[in-house]
Design brief:
- This protein is 23% helix and 32% strand.
- By secondary structure, the protein is α+β, with helices and mostly antiparallel strands.
- It has a 9-stranded mixed sheet with strand order 21-26-28-27-22-23-24-25-29, with no helix packed on it.
- The chain is elongated and about 95 Å long.
Length: 658
């Protein structure tokens, strides 16, 4: 009996002890779960923040095992790097989120300008850390041998939500990525130089004005999109040159490798210098689509595959493949292949310069010709009055003459052997239509045959509506007209012209050094075409009409120094301007009118030859005389009248606002 009691007691103690152990294990497990949840769960963003920072993926769960768990070496590497950057102890940095990613290139999608990034899909991790007050996001490869810190997240309070929504909407449309994979990573307030937000395109007129707005960077799905916007959000424009957009995120690695291998062999360049710029899934109607140049049967026998575009700084190749890339064929008609053999450093330098000059992304440019040259001096044969050029050796300076196509425009650059020095060759780049228009006008003006004239200098310019040549009393539209400044010479005289990109030309008389040409014979102005006489208190009046703007402006000088300008036909008088000059200047101008005997030109008109276009008609009046002339024949009118016009221009230029 005693033995049975003892046995029962022992069993009872064993049951209690087992229960205590089980309870301890459960408590410890719960504590570990709470600890892991605290370290892994991020703080949920506010509703406003969600609109600005869309999650790319759900946070990683530390309880996951195997491939989904963040490797210890990655966690340690990002903590160590952030600690060295911020000075925060590694123990105070907690990983709040992580997710597996496949990055678009060797720079993990965060390559800087001019940085060469390996064109390959890189598996890795995105890791978010926090010290309790601020968060940081890292990108790594699988072993954390490559680390990249993302830009700080934008403050949701600064960028208007409506603007953020508009940007993200466009990014979704362009990339085809779901909204959950896109996020705004950077915002910056900017003031853009014109109505095109600084993204000028050939043939598009942009109003010259300061436009407040934003630069917004969107990232996700292996894409980087940089936007320029107006402050109101009424304009949202993609900066293609600053963006990195491809459709190759879903491209299979076997296809990528096969295409890059073939392109490398085709161009005889390393694969690391090539980049996949576009990839599109296709369904080819027939397998013989891979046998270019051969006769294809007409039956529909679809085959799934890809169309992949590969590019470097000078070439653009389009390939067609089947789904596994067991067949890869070059589409020669769709490709842009040149025989240019300029070194990669030269090609990159020239394309970067052309991109900045033209405003077009490098992906839209194409090198069409490259020639080896021996330049006569260190200035590459392009002289300037303000620059002293060191002479070359007897063998000359080795280099390249590179021609680039940018849409309908052509850019020619001279470089040294490695592209570290270069110069824009404006004369060689000048459109033929512009060159011919300028030479014809100089020949007509000077009576010198075109064969005896040569263009010695040409520079790209952006003009206002008057092509940069203002006239007294004429308000020039503030539009950006792409064009040229062209200098012509006959070895003794020079003529400077301002042009657009086609055939509109205007002589810059102040910049030219040429003798006066034959004086024109005037005609009489009919009395019916004379303007009203000046009233009491008026000293001088200039009426300008015609030109590119097609408007008429009237500028009047009063004897008290007031200078008033109106636009004829402006019902609201909204363009009235009032300025002032000194009484001394008024008196000097009146004396000049008498000295040059302005009255002898009364009712005389000096007109250009028939066929001239886009010139400005000027009609100038004093108290007792009126004469008229066209601006393009100003250097062919009598010298005394030229002196009057010159003095009036100087007086107008010295005006001060009231």
């Amino acid at each position: 009996m005693i033995e049975n009691r003892s046995t029962a007691a022992t069993k009872s103690h064993q049951r209690v002890f087992a229960a205590l152990i089980l309870t301890s294990i459960l408590s410890l497990g719960a504590a570990m779960t709470l600890l892991q949840s605290a370290s892994a769960s991020p703080v949920e963003p506010s509703q406003d923040a969600v609109g600005l920072m869309l999650k790319q993926k759900r946070p990683g769960n530390p309880n996951n095992s195997g491939a989904n768990r963040l490797p210890t070496q990655v966690a340690n590497a990002v903590r160590k790097d952030l600690s060295s950057t911020t000075g925060i102890a590694p123990g105070k940095l907690k990983i709040t989120e992580y997710s597996r990613q496949t990055w678009s290139d060797g720079c993990l999608g965060l390559g800087k300008a001019h940085e060469s990034c390996l064109a390959a899909l890189v598996p890795g991790w995105r890791v978010v850390l926090s010290d309790g007050r601020k968060t940081w996001a890292y990108r790594t490869d699988n072993q954390a041998r490559v680390l990249r810190l993302e830009e700080s997240q934008p403050d949701p309070a600064t960028l208007p939500k409506s603007l953020a929504d508009a940007v993200l909407k466009d990014a979704i449309r362009r990339t085809g990525a779901p909204s959950s994979e896109l996020r705004i990573v950077k915002t910056e307030k900017r003031s853009w130089p014109n109505s095109c937000l600084g993204l000028n395109e050939p043939g598009v007129g942009c109003l010259l004005m300061m436009v407040p707005g934003w630069e917004v960077t969107v990232e996700g799905s292996q894409q980087l999109l940089v936007y320029r916007t107006k402050e109101s959000g009424s304009a949202v424009l993609l900066d293609e040159a600053a963006s990195k957009i491809t459709n190759s995120a879903n491209l299979r690695e076997s296809v990528l490798a096969a295409v890059l291998k073939q392109a490398s062999a085709q161009l005889n360049v390393p694969a690391s210098s090539l980049k996949i710029v576009d990839a599109e899934q296709k369904t080819w109607p027939n397998p013989c689509m891979f046998n270019f140049g051969k006769i294809c049967t007409r039956e529909y026998n679809p085959i799934a595959g890809w169309q992949v575009t590969v590019a470097n700084s000078a070439q653009r190749l389009v390939y067609r493949t089947d789904k596994s890339a067991s067949k890869v064929m070059l589409d020669k008609e769709a490709s842009q292949i040149t025989n240019a053999q300029a070194p990669e450093s030269v090609s990159k330098a020239v394309l970067q310069q052309v991109s900045e000059l033209s405003g077009m992304p490098i992906s839209s440019l194409r090198i069409v010709k490259a020639e080896q040259k021996k330049w006569p001096d260190k200035c590459l044969g392009i002289s300037s009055p303000l620059i002293l050029c060191a002479p070359a050796s007897s063998e000359g300076v080795p280099g390249w003459l590179v021609t680039v196509e940018a849409g309908k425009e052509r850019f020619v650059y001279r470089t040294n052997a490695d592209g570290s020095a270069g110069a824009f060759d404006g004369v060689a780049s000048l459109p033929e239509s512009v060159a011919n228009a300028v030479l014809r006008d100089v020949s007509k003006l000077s009576r010198i045959p075109m064969s005896s004239l040569s263009i010695i200098q040409a520079q790209r310019q952006t003009w206002d509506g008057c092509l940069g040549i203002s006239k007294p009393g004429v308000a020039c539209p503030e539009v950006g007209i792409s064009g040229w400044e062209v200098v012509v010479s006959d070895n003794q005289n020079t003529w400077v012209y301002h042009t657009d990109n086609n055939s509109k030309v205007a002589l810059n008389k102040d910049g030219s050094k040429a003798p006066n040409t034959t004086t024109l014979n005037p005609t009489k102005i009919p009395s019916s075409e004379l303007p009203p006489s000046l009233t009491q208190g008026m000293v001088f009046r200039a009426i300008a009409s015609g030109g590119i703007a097609g408007r008429t402006y009237e500028t009047t000088l009063m004897n008290d120094g007031l200078l008033m300008q109106i636009r004829v036909g402006d019902a609201n008088d909204s363009e009235r301007r009032v300025f002032r000059v000194s009484p001394k200047q008024v008196k000097q101008f009146e004396q000049l009118l008498k000295r040059q005997k302005f009255s002898r030109f009364n009712q005389l008109r000096y007109s250009p030859s028939s066929g001239a276009a886009d010139y400005i008609n000027m009609m100038i009046s004093s108290q007792n005389s009126t004469t008229a002339y066209a601006d393009i024949v100003q250097n062919q009118i009598p010298q005394p009248l030229q002196e009057v016009i010159k003095a009036w221009n100087a007086l107008y230029a010295s005006r001060q606002p009231l």
